[in-house]
Structure formats: structure tokens, C-alpha cells
Amino acid sequence: MHEGIVVTRNARPRSATLKDVAAKAGVSPMTVSRVINGQSGVGAETRAAVEEVIRILGYTPNVAARSLVTSAEPKIGVIYSNPSAAFMSDFLIGVFEEASARGIRLVLLKGEGGKPPAKARLKELAASGVAGFIVTPPLGESPSMLDLLRETGLPMAAVGAHAVENAICVRIDDRRAAYEMTRHLIDLGHRRLGFIVGNPDQAASAERLAGFYAAVREAGDVRTTVAQGDFSFASGLDAAEKLLDASQMPSAIFASNDDMAAAVISVAHRRQLDVPRELTVVGFDDTPAAVMLWPPLTTVHQPVRDLASEALRLLAAEIAAPGLPASRSDRVLEHTIVKRQSTAEVRPPDRVTSPEAAE
Fold it and tell me: HEC profile for 302-339?
């Protein structure tokens, strides 16, 4: 199957990358990494072809590739940039606890404003001897960053991401969770619903909006108003103003995360609206902020610590014993609806009585 590989001796002999080797040999970067480290799961013919390409290109494996099997204390890079401090707090607790239990050292790399770190810093991390990567939302769906990480041939796990190629994805069923929360609002009698969408670059945002609309279509008599956010508190303030200024103000607002829901409650208080008597508000995530608000927030419990812990566990297993391609790993954990004091049954319209009827 590898007959016919043609490699010239002057083809980038000093600057070849692992991706170059993979392309010339007609295999994946992960296969090249396994050959370099003498791991199982690669056929003899494939191994020989990869080794020949490595020899001719003069490719020198970097420290990161060798660390997959040689490091006594494996290192994993954690790449994060999330506007929600509450989400990140839970995530880091989960990943640190799992790393401590497994004797894994974590190397943290932060981006700013929900954006990936600089390309140079990502390359430095990849060359530092890490054996794999864990990526938080929204970075788990950043095409440019993921392409760069794939070039290393190292395994990666993306928390909260949906169907990312060659990555372990650990998430909840966002669509189902949003559907169930919307059904809860409809069951309370609300027929004017507002919805605040999350970061447009994340699949979870589209999934939650799809779940909201699925419940609305099923009910059949619900009017909706949608505003765009990005999961930050500031975006929630802007979205809340737009929804509450609508010609028909919603009787309930569903924000795609707790930070934006907190912003809605803040705007409602400033406008002297009683929550939940005049406005029901619900969120998503069940972060610590949900119980610090007044009133405490009804929300979808997303087990962020468990998601982080499970992602690290699966990644460690992939590093220790490479098996099925990571692209087939899609772990979905359970969510729950947590009901608190920010929701109430819809108030019936005030009854207008004519003077004649009053006599």
C-alpha cells in the first residue's frame, strides 16, 4: 500500500515537520508519532515506510513527540480563554484534582478575550515536552489553533466541543438541556419568551438555541424574541436591554449561561422589575454565581468539574495506550435542571372591569 512513495533528497532536509513526514508517507501525524516512539498499533509495512521518509527528509523529532513515552511525570498542556470566570474556576478545579490523582503535571497557557494564544506561544508549548493538550471552550472549536495542534501529532481533548476531528470531545447534550429548560418555562404558563444566544463561534450556542426553538415549535403558541450575546456578563447586559425594550416584553428570559442570566437580573432590578413576579429568568451551567444572586437562579446544571476530569482521564488513557482514533471519542455526561427562586408561574393579565359591570 506504500509502494510508489517518491521522496527526493533535497526536499526540505533541515526544516521538515512531523506533518511533512505524515503527508509524504500517506499516514496521519498520530501514526508518525507512534512510529517515532516505538508504540504498537502500526503495521510493519507502514512503520518501514514512515521510517524511510524520516530518514530521507532528515526529520528530527522534537521533545514533545518523545515525551509521549519517555516522561516519568507526563505533562499536559491546558489551553484556555473563557470569558466566564465561574466556568473557568470549576474547570480548573476539575482538571487539577484529576491531574493530582494521576501524577500528571499541567502546563497552563492562556489566551485573552476568548481568543487563542499567539501562534508562537502555542509552538513553544508544543515543543516543551507536553504529551497532549486539553482545550476549553471556545478554543476547542478554533480552526486555526486546532490545525496547529494537529500538526504536532499529539492527542488532544476539547471540553464542551461538538464533533471535533481527531480530538476527544467531552460535553453534555446542550440541545436536550435547553429543550427541557424551555419546556419548564412553557409549563409555568409563559408564552412570551426571550432567549440570549451564546458565543456564535461555539457549537454549544447553536445547539442550545436549537433546543429552545424545538420546545417552542412543540408548544405552538409561544412568541419569541432572541438577542445575541457571547457568554460574558457585559454582553448579557446589552442583550437584556434589547429584550426588555421589545414592544412585547418577555415574561421569561432564558440566557445561555449563568453570567448572562446574572446580567438580566441586574438590569431587571435597575428597572424595578420584580424577579420572578414580573420577570422569570433562567440560566445555564449552574456555576457558584447561580446561588449568590438574588433571587437564586434556576439553571441547567452542567457538571463542569466532571467534564474537565473526564477529559483529562480519557486523554491520559490515549497517551498511555493509543487505541481507536481520538475522532471517535465523544463522551456525553448527564445534565440536570436545578429549580430555584428565579422562576414563577406567569401572572394572568389584570382584569379590566367596566363601570357598568361594577354596578
Answer: CCHHHHHHHHHHHHHHHHHCCCCCHHHCEEEECCEEEC
